[in-house]
Amino acid sequence: MFSIGELSKRTKVKVPTIRYYEELGLLAEAERTSGNQRRYDNTGLERLSFIRHARDLGFSIEAISSLIELQEHPDRSCETATDIAASQLEEVRAKIKRLRTLEKELSRISKGCDGEGVSEDCYVLASLADHNLCSREH
Considering the domain boundaries, does residue 138 fall inside one? Predict the structure, then answer.
């Protein structure tokens, strides 16, 4: 059995976040000692590790909840899990595309100023102040 602090150390999930996941029902409520301290078993550790990994991959709480629901019914089709993962992949690709656009614009803006002048004539500051100076929408 693990205390909440030990569970936190093992999974690198902060204690308030563990409590939050319990409140949401993502993590089963822990057993309590006579002193009302939470105690988690290996199942709790595995579930929290699952949640942490899913969060690291950017899955939403709602998606994780759906994945846990599916995990709790091993006889169901994994199509839902595949759909959720594919949707997350599309979101990541969209973010990457947006970040590439931002990278190009920031590169262009930063090259527009050699850093030698005064702030009054700084192209970076002017570009941030006037969106029309940007080469594209971002």
Answer: no
